[in-house]
Amino acid sequence: MSWIGKILGGGIGLMFGGPLGAILGATIGHSLIDQQQSSAQGRFSKLEQRQAIFFTAMFAMLGKMAKADGVVSKEELQVVEQFMRHNLRLDPEARKFAVGIFNEAKETDVPFAAYARQFAEVFSNEPQLRNMFYELLFTLAMADGVLHPAEDQLLKSAPGLLGLPSGLYDTLRQRLVKDLLPFYAMLGIPETATDTEVKKAYRKLATEYHPDKIMAQGLPEDFHQFAEDKFKQINEAYESIMSSRQK
Questions:
Q1: SS3 39
Q2: CB contact at 8 A, 77 and 65
Q3: CA torsion angle 235 236 239 240 (round to 10)
Q4: Alpha-carbon distance 91 to 93, whole Å?
């Protein structure tokens, strides 16, 4: 990315304003260059400014999403790292710059909405790009296997801010979010239950509803089918819960 090369080489020149310009300037000022050299390579082209806005908005909004629940998890950091390495194929210097924006944004008081609106304005003619980025936000929110209410609120507001169809939230939620509450209810335990408590509840119910045990009680044939269905549901609940905890 030529604009990153200019920054790393010491030339900032005329960039752009708004909250994204501010976060970019803060990142540069805090960690990357000696600002006394900022006129070395002149102004950025319009294309380079668009590239800078896209890059800055992406990692600023990812930072806001990751911090929405108050804690940036290792799983969320892994999603961002994988995106930088495998999707964007950034070199080490560019990754360092992206992490700087990410960290700066997650700590600032500027709201997610401010970054999203400026991003949507600049890329108003590229709906597919905005759509792709929204899906990335969803993927990051689900990196730890749990959709926190604060993350969910950001995701609900994002389509309107990004100029995307309101139904996109429901579409992606159905595809990416597996609601575990019914599974916990099936085992009769809260979401806060420990792994040991989950296993204990599962074993108790699996024993009670095991088809062999039901058949041994001489109950009507209709109840046998009910027990088999119940047994399958108990197994599905247990496997879904434990699988989500291994992510």
A1: strand
A2: no
A3: -150
A4: 6
**What tokens appear for 22 in the block?**
């501010």
- Say if residues 50 and 122 touch (Cβ distance below 8 Å): yes
**Tell me: the pLDDT tens digits for 112-158?**
999 999 999 989 999 988 998 899 888 888 877 777 888 889 999 99
Query: Residue 163: left (phi > 0), alpha (psi -120 to 50), or beta?
Result: left
Nearest to 67, CA basis, from 158, 173, 140, 135: 140
Structure-block tokens of residue 48 = 């380079």
Length of the chain: 247
**For residue 224, what are the CA distances in angstroms to 153, 186, 216, 220, 228?**
44, 19, 10, 7, 6
Please give the model's pTM, rounded to 2 decimal places.
Answer: 0.65
pLDDT digits (tens, 9 = 90+) for 14-47: 456 888 888 887 887 655 443 433 443 446 677 7
The segment with the largest mean pLDDT, out of 20-29, 40-49, 194-203, 233-242, is 194-203
Placement of tokens 């575990």 in the chain: 180
E strands present in 101-204: none
CA 170 to chain centre: 16
